[in-house]
């Protein structure tokens, strides 16, 4: 039996270390292609409060969203990377991962969880829970450092890796895969997995645990709470249902230590607004001008489903007062569209 391919995972850094450094802090680990749940670690399949773990997580697919095809789930452990093959293993394999993906005892480190969560929810009934979204964490770190929040300035995974604070790593191979995906959107559906597919899938998660440790050591308690609650709201974002997320896990509560100083952070919420059919372009404005104007006035995030859907919906995430303000401004834009 051929030995599995290998890749390198940077080890969690020592406090105060800002770079990958020498070879001694990089570990060579196997990449396992998983087609049956028995190939996955026991601590993943059966989450336990006695064995809480942190893993890197990502999904690949063809048009990954509620209607697309989930092809691979990548799981990065400190000692191995597992590529869960949803094409070969089918629904039974993905459903075997459901307890872990929904567990509070397993932290899933991911970069921009919205579409991954949507695909898992609508295709497999999985409510992704307990995520650390590195895109959110990056914004919170910049805010802590006193940088002014810039609307729509969402760091890409390639940009995050390139930041010297989080590795200063060039990820040129990502563009190679992007070109192939533009040429053939079904790239991730083909089997057997090619050497390029295995390497590209592993590359998307192998740095996540390193980045996680670098980020968490920089975030204060207040920012860590924002990270948890916004991650939960991002997971819900495109997963709209008829019961207002009543069957989803409760949002993280504000820690008592933050309540005690009379400067408790305001509750954060997700609001979904219906947009008149066919009027989305008018609401958004030329080159997004209308939405940018609203975002500059409100400390809230506004997302749209775009080509992948869901159509005719605006998703607003942020503190209650800021979300209500954004809602009012969006409704004003809608009225303007109705009467002009």
Assess the beta-strand content as a share of residues. Answer: 15-25%
Number of helices: 14
Helix content: 25-40%
Low-confidence stretches: 20-24
Looking at the structure, what is the overall shape? Answer: globular
Order of helices and strands: EEHEEEHHEHEHHHHHHHEHHEEH
Distance between the termini: 70 Å
Biggest sheet character? 7 strands, mixed
Structural class given helices, strands, pairing?
A: alpha/beta
Q: Tell me the Rg in angstroms.
A: 20 Å
| Mean pLDDT figure | 91
Per DSSP E runs of 2 or more residues, the count of β-strands stands at 10
Describe the protein.
There is one protein chain. This protein is α/β, with parallel strands linked by helices and 340 residues long. The protein is 38% helix and 19% strand. The protein contains 14 helices and 10 strands. The strands form 2 sheets. It has a 7-stranded mixed sheet with strand order 1-2-5-4-3-6-7. A 3-stranded antiparallel sheet has the order 8-10-9. β9 and β10 form a beta hairpin. The longest helix has 20 residues. It is globular, with a radius of gyration of 20 Å. The N and C termini lie far apart (70 Å). About 1% of the residues have low confidence. InterPro entries: 3'-5'_exonuclease_dom, KH_dom, KH_dom_type_1, KH_dom_type_1_sf, RNaseH-like_sf, RNaseH_sf. Keywords: RNA-binding. One of its GO terms (molecular function) is RNA binding.
């Amino acid at each position: 039996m051929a030995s599995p391919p290998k890749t390198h995972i940077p080890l969690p850094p020592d406090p105060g270390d800002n770079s990958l450094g020498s070879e001694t802090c990089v570990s060579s680990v196997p990449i396992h292609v998983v087609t049956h749940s028995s190939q996955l670690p026991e601590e993943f399949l059966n989450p336990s409060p006695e064995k809480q773990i942190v893993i890197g997580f990502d999904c690949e697919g063809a048009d990954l969203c509620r209607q697309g095809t989930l092809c691979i789930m990548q799981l990065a452990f400190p000692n191995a990377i597992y590529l869960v093959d949803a094409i070969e293993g089918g629904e039974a394999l993905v459903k075997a991962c459901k307890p872990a993906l929904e567990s509070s005892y397993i932290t899933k480190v991911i970069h921009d969880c919205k579409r991954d969560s949507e695909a898992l929810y609508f295709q497999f009934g999985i409510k992704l829970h307990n995520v650390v979204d590195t895109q959110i964490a990056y914004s919170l770190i910049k805010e802590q450092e006193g940088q002014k929040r810039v609307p729509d300035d969402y760091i890409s995974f390639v940009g995050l890796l390139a930041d010297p604070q989080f590795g200063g790593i060039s990820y040129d191979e990502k563009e190679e895969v992007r070109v192939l995906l533009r040429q053939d959107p079904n790239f991730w559906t083909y089997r057997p997995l090619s050497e390029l597919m295995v390497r590209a899938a592993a590359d998307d998660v192998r740095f996540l645990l390193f980045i996680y440790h670098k980020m968490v050591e920089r975030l204060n308690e207040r920012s860590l709470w924002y990270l948890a609650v916004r991650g939960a709201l991002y997971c819900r974002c495109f997963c709209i249902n008829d019961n207002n997320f009543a069957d989803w896990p409760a949002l993280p509560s504000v820690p008592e230590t933050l309540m005690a100083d009379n400067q408790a952070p305001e509750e954060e919420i997700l609001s979904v607004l219906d947009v008149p059919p066919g009027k989305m372009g008018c609401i958004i404005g030329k080159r997004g001008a209308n939405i940018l104007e609203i975002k500059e006035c409100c400390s809230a995030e506004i997302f749209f489903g775009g080509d992948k859907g869901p159509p005719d919906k605006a998703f607003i995430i942020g503190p209650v007062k800021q979300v209500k303000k954004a809602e009012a401004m969006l409704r004003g834009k809608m009225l303007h569209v109705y009467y002009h």
